[in-house]
Design goal:
binds adenosine-5'-diphosphate; 350 residues; single chain; 2 domains; four-stranded antiparallel β-sheet; alpha/beta; eight-stranded mixed β-sheet; Rossmann fold; 13 helices; globular; binds magnesium ion; binds iron/sulfur cluster
Length: 350
């Protein structure tokens, strides 16, 4: 059963070149009891998608098309005012990117927690505080001390974990975490993801974890959704996608991640740079400038995201079998269109 059904979602930002899509016709489901990992390099539209899920796309942005149905709530994109405030943080718990900087510097954490409870008409505020302390303790902090502290008395990592406590404390059914562990060292990352997994399981949540680090999310997610240039290019059950990436971008992303391949020498940075709104291809496949598999049609027609195997979708003109067999390769070795970071040719003048 899907808690959240996103359909044909397009979000645009106004730029000097006009309104351009940061998320283009994205459709995906978040199912109860599943952790979905949304991955892709910086600029691929992940945070914009997360903001849209809360109907919180900031100016100069707008949702140009689509719907976001949340079970028991309806289409979030049609909500306004009080209804919307209730859903944000209530049915939909969230931690936005860089939200460790979004606490109120003038109030102790505990007071901010009470404000959150009151604004959501929580009757039993004592129980709310007790639950927050318990969550904080389980994330390796001293709950009593943390609730008495001001933001400046806490480290960046602690603030990040407190953001997750705030997202979980109102018993949301859907949890959206945008880069939740970026400010943390590896050990704290593991501890935080561990508690997210436990709370997720206990409450049968639908959880979306957004990260540019496919290695971090590969230890916790059930499903993987891969974005590039505002498009969902592939998704499916986590282990299946890691074993059999069917989109050239997913394959390159995994190949560049030592934590998954277990091979530090083989893991190499993705050649080339991800596009931004103004440089992303408007015609054809958005990945073609960096794709070692590109063929003529890739420059002309955008591939549709289509089901091709149980629980799997991909948007690519070339057959999955071709992507499986050929080596990860780079644009340079495969002889495809060159990229800005292609290695210099031997003998080239300095
Ligand atoms: N407020 C904004 N105004 C204009 N462009 C934006 C704005 N926010 C994000 N973008 C652009 O939208 C694209 C997607 O950004 P974002 O959703 O933050 O990606 P990600 O979270 O995957 O790094 C990027 O090209 C980014 O530069
Ligand atoms: S559609 Fe073409 S350019 Fe795009 S990922 Fe597939 S092979 Fe590469
Ligand atoms: Mg982001």
């Amino acid at each position: 059963m899907s808690e959240v059904r996103v359909r044909e979602l397009t979000v645009e930002y106004q730029t000097p070149a006009g309104w351009l899509p940061a998320v283009a016709a994205a459709s995906l489901d978040l199912r109860a009891g599943e952790i979905t990992g949304l991955v892709g390099e910086s600029g691929s539209g992940k945070s914009t998608l997360a903001l849209a899920l809360l109907n919180a796309v900031p100016e100069p942005g707008r949702v140009a098309a689509g719907s976001i149905e949340v079970a028991g709530v309806g289409d979030v994109l049609t909500l306004t005012g009080k209804q919307l405030r209730k859903v944000r943080g209530g049915s939909l718990g969230y931690v936005f990117q860089a939200s460790q900087n979004s606490l109120n510097p003038l109030k102790p954490i505990g007071k901010q927690l009470l404000d959150l409870g009151r604004s959501h008409e929580v009757k039993d505020l004592r129980a709310l505080i007790a639950r927050a302390k318990d969550l904080a303790n389980r994330m390796g902090m001293d709950g009593d001390r943390v609730l008495d502290s001001y933001q400046h008395q806490l480290s960046g990592g602690m603030r990040q974990r407190i953001g997750i406590v705030f997202a979980l404390v109102l018993n949301a059914k859907v949890l959206i975490l945008d880069e939740p562990t970026t400010a943390l060292d590896m050990l704290s990352q593991a501890a935080v993801l561990d508690i997210v997994r436990k709370v997720h399981d206990e409450n049968q949540l639908s959880t979306l974890i957004i990260t540019h680090d496919i290695g971090a999310v590969s230890e916790i997610a059930d499903r993987l959704v891969v974005m590039y240039g505002g498009r969902i290019v592939e998704d499916g059950p986590l282990l299946d996608v890691l074993r059999r990436p069917s989109h050239p971008y997913t394959k390159a992303l995994i190949g560049a991640t030592a934590r998954i391949t277990g091979d530090v020498d083989a893991a190499r940075a993705l050649p080339g740079r991800p596009p931004d709104l103004t440089t992303v291809a408007r015609v054809g496949c958005v990945f073609r400038d960096r794709c070692p598999f590109a063929v003529d049609v890739c420059a002309e027609t955008e591939p549709a995201l289509e089901a091709w195997d149980a629980g799997r979708r991909r948007a690519c003109h070339v057959a999955p079998s071709t992507v499986f067999i050929a080596p990860t390769g780079t644009a340079a070795t495969a002889g495809a269109a060159g990229t800005a970071e292609e290695p210099a040719t031997v003998g080239e003048p300095a």
